[in-house]
Amino acid sequence: MQYCSTRGGVHGWDFRDVLFSGYAPDGGMFMPESLPVLSPDTLRCWKGLSYTKLVVEVASLFIHNQLIPKQDLEVLVAEALSGFSVPEIVRIARLKEGLSVLELFHGGTLAFKDLAMTCTVRFLDYFLRKENCRATVLVGTSGDTGGSAIQSAKGLSGLDVVVVYPQGRITPVQEKHMITCLEDNVHVFADGSSDDIDQPLRRLFADQELVKSHSLMSLNSVNWSRVMIQLAHFIYAYLELSGMEQNKAALPEMEVVVPTGGAGNIAAGLIVRQMGLPLKMVAMVNSNDIVHRMVTTGDFSMAANVTQTLAPAIDIQDPYNMERVFWLLLDRDGSSVKNMMEEFQHTHRYSLPENHRKLLSQVLSTGTVTDEGILETMRRCWDENQYVLCPHTAVAVWHHYHCPPSPGLNRCYVATASPAKFQAVVQRAGLTFDLPEAVRSLDNLATRYQNLERSLDWCKDWEERLREKILSLSSCRKNNGTYYS
């Protein structure tokens, strides 16, 4: 299994190279040069596997056995997923009227990011220990990614973690998962909106001398390993909910509804579709509706500002994983993707040709939900099921109440976070939720973070501030006599 860039300038990289990278050197995102096909027989053999074993099977398709032997992979995945609060790791809540909610939030930071992040960090640590190296992880987060990266990597001797988050635009629990970590290898910066944060980070990753000489990498869903692990929960949902065991002749179609921000889950679902699962994907967004506008009208353009909503983790106007989706739809045409994405990055707008928009609309449906729609959905789900949704999951479940599935079509709704992370919204909906002890205890912990000040030339200033931090971490490594690649 080898990897290439979505923009056509890089080919032939292996999993280890891609794992330790952010964006590709040409500015694109890494994807497998070819996708394995999941036959009906393979899927039927996987039916009944635990989630942990399924992750191993999926990951082994994309990681060459010479890089991580399967027996090592089994140990790494088992260790990564050992700290989840339910033994099955993910859980399906089967509610009334065919409402099936795939709960992906039982990890340490109560968000779906923990599933892929814990595994990815274990893979990193495996190589760093094997090669006696250190690396610096640089993460921009709209809420959940930063906390998950910190909790997964805190205390590891081979990794420094630098996180930038939008202060005032995430919930107190999301913030505390980041700023209460006082480990020496964790460095947290605050300010801006999530799309503001992406700009200086892209510039840092574009500096290939900095990336190579200071072992700089990303743990956003820019990193292929994150998306790779996310393939597993789509396959798991399909095996559990599609009714495939009742149809021996052909694989039945199933619809998956996903609350969407950076589009990492959408990319994963469409990759799984190309691998052979008959999935229908639905991307539900909040008022930051760039994905909805793109699919319905071809308008792939950022609004002037990121709108603050009750579902802050998807308050994103730059759904960067759509680049992977475009690459798949355009038959891996790196040149076309390069032209499209460079125009979008320079002008913040792009108009999809109608033939491209139609290709996209054939594999992806969309909808947009207001804050009032989020609250309405949370209340209705509680009234009918005594089940509390987080506001992001409510963005998906809104589709259940307003666009019921066709007769005979099974549908799954992805629950990306626990309502415990969004207490103010739960209260605003007039509901109550018993907080886990792990959340209540956050209020008593000390905090540490640094501010990034807004200035006239804030993007350059932030880039230089973060660059200084990266250089200082590398200097500490040298002074301590540790080797880095």
Can you summarize this structure?
By secondary structure, the chain is an alpha/beta fold.
Q: Can you walk me through this structure?
A:
The structure is a single chain. This protein is α/β, with parallel strands linked by helices. It has helices at residues 15-19, 40-46, 51-62, 70-80, 113-131, 144-153, 172-179, 194-206, 208-213, 224-241, 264-275, 290-297, 322-329, 334-347, 354-363, 371-385, 391-402, 423-428, 437-440, 458-479; strands spanning 3-5, 30-32, 91-94, 100-103, 135-140, 159-165, 186-190, 216-217, 254-259, 279-285, 299-301, 349-351, 364-368, 410-415, 450-451. A six-stranded mixed β-sheet has the order 3-4-14-9-10-13, sandwiched between helices. The chain has a five-stranded parallel β-sheet with strand order 8-5-6-7-15, sandwiched between helices. A hairpin with a 5-residue loop joins strand 3 and strand 4. Helix 6 runs parallel beside helix 7 (172-179). The two termini are 23 Å apart.
Secondary structure elements and pairings:
Layout: E1 3-5, H1 15-19, E2 30-32, H2 40-46, H3 51-62, H4 70-80, E3 91-94, E4 100-103, H5 113-131, E5 135-140, H6 144-153, E6 159-165, H7 172-179, E7 186-190, H8 194-206, H9 208-213, E8 216-217, H10 224-241, E9 254-259, H11 264-275, E10 279-285, H12 290-297, E11 299-301, H13 322-329, H14 334-347, E12 349-351, H15 354-363, E13 364-368, H16 371-385, H17 391-402, E14 410-415, H18 423-428, H19 437-440, E15 450-451, H20 458-479
Parallel strand pairs: 4-14, 5-6, 5-8, 6-7, 7-15, 9-10, 9-14, 10-13
Antiparallel strand pairs: 1-2, 3-4, 11-12
Helix pairs in contact: 3-4, 3-10, 4-5, 5-6, 5-10, 6-7, 8-20, 10-11, 11-13, 12-15, 16-17
